[in-house]
Specification:
Length: 420
């Protein structure tokens, strides 16, 4: 029984229940497993794309370039660079012509210039002269004694010249060392512990290296499902290399509007409308990818936005300051304009004081609920009737709380319903 091989369907069942990173590891080491996975729908619960890194679930994949020296101790600059994980930009012949970081990096092991060679040569001549004076002072104390102040000056000058010559000789030594640039792929846990590392010679650009990585570890299907995609990289197509993703929840860390079209290139048509999209800038709110999402999540200092800015059914706001200002703007808007369709606005905060400030905004409309407002027990629910001449409505205010990442988060939900 124990020696009986698994059937094809059994392997498919096991693979479908494996954690994403385990599945990727098996795919990279077995062409047979890769063929099976290619015929299966690929799903990733969580994927993050950044500059030089990918996060799959709780595992980080980073790609960088380090310089390995042979036949001698590496310069301190490159030792520190290696300890920090290397650089995430192309260097050498693959570097961008205008990349100043590459130029500064190359200066660290550049051979001495003509000026430095001449300076070191003159320093050695002058040092011989100073050593002669100081040696004479020690050998013939009776007749060759130097003035104490002059002796101190000669000693200080000799020490400075010795340091200059030492730096020059170290630069000559470093310039003669042979080295190889290498691409390093690190696999790390969420706590920063390295669980895997590969190093190959730097013979292709990082863009091509990411393509190799995706081809090896990801089963590149026409469409791969990602439950939650978070994008830090301003040009994610460089990292994804044409991979098409079917995404449910999208989080955008960049507030540049011009990058939305590039992001859209990697999203399959089945992604739309998105289940939710999180943004950090009001300048992108009119983009079709955002206006068609079922839920929009806004992070940052937005206080002047009102429901007419959105066509989304659910608006979730994570303000960086006063929630009361947002609630006040919302209430004033509904009192002046009424409501023509259901709209849910949810404010999230970790500060109980902001919850109390929001309740004060609605206090004039909550007659008979004074005791409930002052109560600290959650959840609480308040119905509010707003009598608009054309669009009368009911506004429901609900305050709840929940624990998220060991932190208490308060949720203030205001959903408006037109009165028929």
């Amino acid at each position: 029984m124990f020696g009986k091989p698994m059937t094809y369907l059994s392997i498919q069942t096991v693979l479908s229940h494996l954690e994403s990173n385990k599945r990727m590891e098996l795919s990279a080491n077995s062409s047979y497993i890769k063929q099976i996975l290619y015929r299966m729908p690929q799903k990733f619960p969580h994927l993050e794309i950044g500059d030089g890194f990918l996060v799959v679930g709780s595992t980080y994949y980073t790609m960088s370039i380090v310089r390995n020296y042979m036949g001698g101790e590496a310069p301190e600059y490159f030792q520190n660079e290696k300890e920090d994980g290397g650089v995430t930009y192309d260097v050498g012949k693959f570097a961008h012509p205008e990349c100043r970081f590459n130029a500064l990096r190359n200066d660290e092991d550049a051979p001495p210039t003509y000026y430095e060679i001449e300076t070191a040569r003159n320093a050695k001549k002058r040092l011989n002269v100073l050593h002669g004076f100081l040696k004479k002072d020690r050998s013939y104390p009776a007749i060759g004694r130097l003035d104490p102040r002059l002796k101190r000056g000669y000693t200080y000058e000799a020490k400075s010249l010795e340091e200059l010559i030492k730096r020059y000789e170290e630069k000559v030594r470093i310039a003669k060392l042979e080295y190889k640039e290498c691409i390093v792929l690190n696999k790390m846990n969420a706590d920063g512990t390295t669980v895997g590392q590969e190093m190959v010679e730097y013979s292709i650009s990082l863009k091509s290296a990411w393509a190799y990585f995706l081809k090896r570890f990801f089963v590149v299907r026409k469409e791969t499902t990602v439950e939650k995609l978070r994008i830090f990289h301003p040009k994610p197509h460089i990292m994804l290399q044409g991979l098409q993703l079917r995404v449910n929840d999208l989080i955008l860390e960049s507030d540049e509007k011009k990058y939305l079209s590039e992001i859209q290139q990697n999203l399959s048509i089945k992604s739309f409308p998105l289940k939710s999209i999180e943004v950090r800038s009001e300048w992108v709110l009119d983009h079709p990818m955002i206006t068609t999402a079922n839920q929009i999540i806004i992070s940052g200092g937005f206080t002047s936005l009102t429901p007419n800015h959105f066509s989304n059914g659910i608006i979730r706001i994570k303000p960086s300051f006063s929630s009361a200002v947002i609630a006040s703007n919302l209430l004033n808007f509904y009192q002046e304009n009424g409501c023509s369709e259901r709209k849910d606005v949810i404010i999230e905060t970790d500060d109980l004081r902001q919850v109390k400030e929001v309740l004060k905004v609605f206090e004039p409309l909550l007659k008979g609920f004074e005791k409930k407002i002052k109560s600290s027990k959650l959840p609480i629910h308040f119905p509010i009737c707003i009598a608009h001449r054309i669009r009368p409505m009911n506004l429901y205010l609900i305050v709840t709380h929940m624990k998220k990442d060991n932190q208490l988060i308060y949720s203030i939900t205001m959903f408006a319903v037109p009165k028929l």
